[in-house]
Design brief:
2 copies of one chain form a homodimer. With about 475 residues, the first copy, chain A, is an alpha/beta fold. The first copy, chain A, is about 40% helix and about 20% strand. In chain A, the strands form 5 sheets. In chain A, strands 13-12-1-5-3-19-20 form a 7-stranded antiparallel beta sheet. In chain A, strands 7-6-11-10-9-8 form a 6-stranded parallel beta sheet. In chain A, helix 13 links the parallel strand 10 and strand 11. The longest helix of chain A is centred in the last third of the chain and has 27 residues. Chains A, B: This is Nicotinate phosphoribosyltransferase.
């Protein structure tokens, strides 16, 4: 996260200059970052990316190179460029911790500050949160599909550029993957690495048996052999068993085999039998080959004998839904800390924004299971019994009693200073797992999950309705005036 | 492309140590980087990413930090770590220039060198070429759909991490996009920038008219106004016309409007009429809102009055096909520059590799249209008349006469030294456009395109068949031996 000040859309800078020139330099605003739809047809989302947002904010300054480039564009005036030269983020940021389970319309990040600065950071915040949240969510699905089997992320070669590989690896770990093949991600984030040999290794030796023996000589205690270069059952498994027994005879423990093509259910079951007959019951079977949560689920349902899964393209790109679609919308504007709620109308009801400075409150039942969330105004408190209702299908009501609540947003920056301690990655992974345990299985179903309840508080609902009415009335009046001229 | 040595999969390093420890330190190999399937159901692919590959190779060295990390993993011995410490790439690389039209199974990059080094670079090469080629190809489709209309790429907020935004912007420009919103991509690669204001700008002023006037004051000569914050036809367009006329009265030229929601066909046609009636015939209409090549095509077919297109998520992630799926396969191995062809078998015929050191020859007819490609062995020459045939459906034959040929691979590195001058990005864009012009329209159709002919030379075909037979005979013999024991 170096050289990041220009990681933004040009219109952020043209708007900034516009605010500056029109006397809005000190105007303040609140923006919410949220998504509208859960990816991959799932029932929940795992938030991720906050650590990179923090790094970005802390490194946010325009270098002299940046300044020279902007000046050369000939669209910015010197007064504005001067303001950029000394730019630092001085606003407030609240966010849900990484690993938190979140749902559509809930602000994952809330930015309050001068509109100049809140606007500048929009693009990078979306870029980071959109991607890491997407991959943490996908990983959580893949890991769930794998049951107790471990999942290794090895998508770097298919990732959308180097950062996607590295940040994707991090996000996949948050979502529950246990290993990555990505050495740089291992170095940067301490993610455990895994990896043995490719088909090219096997091809480079006079024959498969010699290739296996060579690998066993170098890594006698981490010997996992790729058995599908020539033929899994006729050649790969028999040769692997031979080498495995040789290793064990020398006092090593043979790790197992990897199958990377063919029918994984059939091949793994046959290979299991062959390994067991040879007395290598402890040898593991690792499977890979264009896997995603649905294929893993189907293969397991057919009784495949697979202990670990290597997942690449589908995970690192979230192939079925390669963008989260998060947005960053103005919810209030003001001056000197006094804010007026703002709302954007749209023909499409799903695109109407929620006005005001908001928080997310999660309601838990006695057993600690999450029952519902309310998006509420910042100063609201809730007491039992509480009746909540769907903001669109308002006849859908539910009364909550005997609940505990938790607010999800946490202060991260105050006046530009960080007030939040970044957790260790391993702790984020554990927290994400705990978060998933608070959800009912119905919400976690891979296909057609039950929709978790996220309602608006009555106060927020009323605010939204009254602003909507106000705006549409105003538009009609203006239109009538125009037509009657 | 700094700190890149660890941008690799762990198994590359474990294999390297294995080669080193098994006396294969000086073994040489040839690898081909190619893809098997054209993304988005298209008929052609635009190669991109070579400049970043060159940067990567030239920056490829292990820092003392990298060395410390690898040592700490406790899987590498000191002899091997010493070899890494002074590691530089000393091999040969040939590649197709960026912007070249390519097809499945054609080597976009060919690496020849010690297997140690050829193996290390696999992951980064795939990562870079896979992504940039994917996006250049998608951009080419979107630009084709837009006809003469210009296309602006503005996907940074939805890109899979910062690099994806920046490299994606570069690749989109190669594919024919004219502008980007991404300021950092503009600075790094000199791509022309574009951008004006967001809905938040409009919402921050007392009303839409005042917001438009404020923008016009700051940017009187680049005034493009976003008209869908409240209501396009009832409010946005009438207010934009008012401000446009005010600008023109002061001697400026009003640029036009942007519509970002609603039915773009209907709204653009109505807006066009309103602008024309007001005497603003020259004002442009820019459209955006979740566009891809198919939506643009459909909207244009219905007579939309749109001059420019802003394309985000679908382009920057190649949403319908978010990975190219390129692979990197061993095709020969040897010693001291003498190579033996190698082949990998597979149950799936599409996964059987092409053995030997190969080149790509493109055959053009008199008018300069591309007729067919041959993947051939490096030392082959072709004379008229030439009969070529499909490597799977071998009865499909075609005789070529009166042709000109061109070889697509160009030397990029020799003995680790760069021998290739990197072209300017703008020239790559022009070259890519020229490349597309050599294709028949049937091959460029967005949906169900005609399949361009890519055959194997007779010599390569025979080599492949004989190696396949050799390997499968050997597997059967070993299996028979095993069973008869």
């Amino acid at each position: 996260m170096q050289d990041v000040a220009l990681l933004t859309d040009l219109y952020q800078l043209t708007m900034m200059q516009g605010y500056y020139q029109n006397g809005y330099e000190n105007k303040e605003a609140v923006f919410d970052l949220y998504f509208r739809k859960i990816p991959s047809g799932g029932g929940y989302v795992i938030a991720a990316g906050l650590e990179q947002v923090v790094e970005y904010i802390e490194n946010l300054r325009f270098s002299s190179e940046d300044m020279a480039y902007l000046r050369g564009l000939n669209i910015f005036d010197e007064g504005f460029l001067n303001l950029l030269k000394d730019f630092r983020f001085h606003g407030d940021i609240d966010a849900v911790p990484e690993g938190t389970v979140v749902f559509p319309y809930e602000p994952l990040v809330r930015v309050k500050g001068r509109i100049l600065e809140a606007q500048l950071i929009e693009t990078a915040l979306l870029n980071i949160i959109n991607f890491e949240t997407l991959i943490a969510t996908k990983a959580s699905r893949v890991v769930a599909a794998a049951g107790g089997g471990s999942v290794m992320e090895f998508g770097l070669r298919r990732a959308q550029g180097p950062d996607a590989g590295i940040l994707g690896s991090r996000a996949a770990f948050i979502g529950g993957c246990q290993f990555t093949s990505n050495v740089l991600a291992g170095k940067r984030y301490g993610i455990p690495l895994s990896g043995t040999q490719a088909h090219s290794w096997i091809q480079c030796f006079p024959d498969e048996l010699e290739a296996f023996r060579a690998y066993a000589r170098t890594f006698p205690d981490q010997c996992l052999l790729l058995v599908d270069t020539y033929n899994v059952l006729k050649s790969g498994v028999p040769n692997a068993i031979k080498v495995g027994l040789e290793l064990e005879a020398e006092g090593h423990r043979f790790l197992g085999i990897r199958i990377d093509s063919g029918d994984l259910t059939y091949l793994s079951r046959e290979a299991r039998k062959m390994l067991d007959q040879a007395g290598l019951e402890h040898a593991r079977i690792v499977a890979s080959n264009d896997l995603d949560e649905h294929t893993i689920s189907a293969i397991r349902a057919q009784g495949a004998a697979i202990d670990s899964w290597g997942v690449g393209t589908h995970l690192i790109t979230s192939k079925d839904t390669p963008a989260l679609g998060g947005v960053y919308k103005l919810s209030a504007e003001g001056q000197k800390g006094v804010f007026e709620p703002r709302l954007k109308v749209s023909e499409n009801i799903s695109k109407i924004t929620n006005p005001g400075i908001k928080k997310i409150v999660r309601f838990y039942d006695r057993r600690g299971k999450a029952m519902a969330d309310l998006i509420a105004l910042e100063d609201e408190h809730f007491e039992e019994p509480l009746t909540i209702f769907d903001p669109i299908e308002t006849w859908k009501r539910k009364t909550l009693t005997d609940f505990k609540t938790r607010e999800l947003l946490r202060p991260v920056f105050r006046g530009g200073r960080r007030v939040y301690e970044l957790p260790y990655l391993k702790d984020i992974q554990t927290y994400a797992q705990h978060e998933c345990e608070t959800l009912w299985d119905e919400v976690k179903r891979l296909v057609n999950p039950h929709r978790y309840i996220v309602d608006l508080s009555p106060k927020l609902f009323e605010l939204r309705q009254s602003l909507l009415l106000e705006i549409s009335t105003k538009i009609e009046e203006e239109q009538t005036k125009r037509l009657s001229k």
